[in-house]
């Protein structure tokens, strides 16, 4: 069984040879590539802590078999900031207290980046909450998270408009 | 998780061959399968990865007015396809009321049809379950069975089929295209899932190696675009399986119902088409009297399988409300909370 795969992770090409086909994308990121920002919460697709972007779309990496994603472009929390400059969603989570213990935060931020890219929620807090329902926060920072997503979305839209002008 | 062989065939024919071996199963997104494997409920010896088979990720308009949806189209891509959502709004609403955004981005059309029950006793390997271990008994009987069946169940199994997507699909006469060693065949979605009877371990009529390659919506399904809704009652407003749900589609002309489609979810081991209710609706004046009569007809054979007697009336009320909302017309834009009875855009009943 040939268990080699090639991924682009946060812009860098990574060639991996697995010793076992059971490895999930989450375990590959954390245990093989030492990218431990992506969290293992429930490991069963219920909490969203393991959310990453695959070819621009948010998925639960715990329910993704790594071998299935040969050739994919993966973005994790480690790849969203530009050097010391935080991604607007990261900055907004800090500004709006969108976290307490922080364990769910990488997943929340990746999910929010995915949500904003999908462009379905607009500036409706109810649509944001619905769109973020796959990410649980047991500290209950939901109010701050919703405000952070709304704010980050506006900042990203303004940046886009400025670039276009 | 048990060890398994992983193969990724290059085409459908090779996939069918690879999956015909005992112990082999298809892997699409894995949203349900990997969960089942982590819990020790599914223990396949071989995974045949079909997630990237060429040609299965397309949505095609056929010359006869039907729509062919490839089995590997992702749930979110289908729901957000503007043309699809406009033509089959109840299906889009059902898709968006299911799971979470992350899961919808991964989960496939074919995989959604074949997801297994979420009965807690099926998932708990320490419990007795005839579906998981034939002959073991059923701990759901006499257990926590709020989410369990009220139609078509047997003494051996009271589990429900959990898909939202299947409910409007079955109402709209969807057809499933299946590839096997002998070639292609098709069956009505209504005939895909099995009632438990004495063989609750069998979810569907599919044989080992059978691969769902597409779901087709026949041309008449387009007639309901203007008046279609999916309504889903659940324990929390988002990211939960249905306690009961209903898909309703109507064609109304001058206040009279010309055509009606109705199906229920969360009530049986299959998406439940309510043909008797459709008959009572056809030719009736659209309004509360006809809707209540239809609801009674839809649930006429219902029987509690435990502490879930409340679901019979809940299902009747869900049917009345789904029909009321459908008669009012498909909303311009889906409500913020798709299929929710609490959705602002769904509005209070006047």
* Element order of chain B: H for helix, E for strand: EHEHEEEHHHHHHHEEEEEEEHHH
Number of helices of chain A: 5
**What do the pLDDT scores of chain B average to?**
96
User: Which chain pair shows the most residues in contact?
Assistant: A-B, 36 and 33 residues
N-to-C span of chain A: 53 Å
**CATH class identity of the largest domain in chain A:** Mainly Alpha
Shape of chain A: globular
Q: How many strand segments of chain B?
A: 12
Structural domain count of chain A? 2
Which shape of chain B, going by the Cα principal axes? globular
Please provide a brief summary of the model.
Chain A has 165 residues and is an alpha+beta fold. Helices cover 36% and strands 14% of the residues of chain A. Chain A has two domains: 76 residues, Beta-grasp domain (Ubiquitin-like (UB roll), Roll); 77 residues, [2Fe-2S]-binding domain (DNA polymerase, domain 1, Orthogonal Bundle), CATH 1.10.150.
